[in-house]
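tool_call: predict_structure(chain=1)
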Amino acid sequence: MHRERRALSSGKKIMVTKTAPRKAAAKKATSKARTSPSAASQRFEAAKLDSLFVVLDAIAWLDAPNTQQVAQFAGIDPRTAGKLLKNACQIGLVDAVGNDYALVLPYPYKGSKEQKEAVVKEALVRLPLLTGVRQFLRLGDKMEPAVRKAATVAGISPFVATDLNPLLEWAQSLGALQPSLIAEDLVDAAETKKELRHQAHKDQRVAFLSHSSADKPFIRQLAADLTANGIGVWLDEQRIRVGDSIPDKIAQGLAESDYFLIGMSQKSSESAWVQKELNNALMTEMKRRNVHILPLKLDDSPMPHIIAEKKYADFSKSYKAGLDELLAAMKEKV
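tool_result:
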């Protein structure tokens, strides 16, 4: 673009070409394009694995908490909480819903460190990037080229090796990079663990507590009371994501449990989870894993047809009476 400017001394016209700013802008844009991460890039934050468990505890217990609430509950600074939440979302442990967070996989809130590590290990094993890494390791590649190739297959671009190091450190520490490992191995291990528990502690019970987020206050109280009575509890919020296979999603927690407790209320019966996922496939999976279903009647709404004939614990009139019924039922031989 040219603009005329008259010289003060000679009165002649001088053509001034303003190209420098345009070149600078182009250079700036090119530089930005080169340095900005693409939509397919992925970067994991350096953070201690043990700190992740207190973050998951917070999300399991709270109702759709934000970063500040997670940090306060967990007793860590918000910046650290933010890093851990970012990693947890990227490996499929947690979903971000706006500024809030919810668990994707069932979680043993008061479980052992070993149980909590198993949950994280399952998420890592199912992660497509690490599935690719294990495949290339099995094909004979060393770790560095295996990660690079797997990242390419997973659509991660540009590939920056250091961005993935925190993920690989977590996976290595939990044994999630063993070349022959598949998710089904973890489910089988959980089932074996249950069999060993039955042999060593025949009266010890573990409950898989499936619930709607709308019933979270009730579930918190029940989880506390079951734990106080020596019953292990896996918490699972009934949520559906596109492409989820519910039997696969809950397989490890279910395989380790003796009872599948499902909180039924007006709100939960109207949920997409109950309407779409409480089906024959789920019932078949429970039967295969030797898990007994015990519905929890929270109000006067009718039970879904598929579990209408099941014995249930009635909390609709009295919480104490319902708890007594439930504890008595769970003391029966499994």
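agent: Strands lie at 2-6, 13-17, 94-97, 100-103, 206-211, 232-237, 259-264, 292-297, 313-314. Proceeding to next step.
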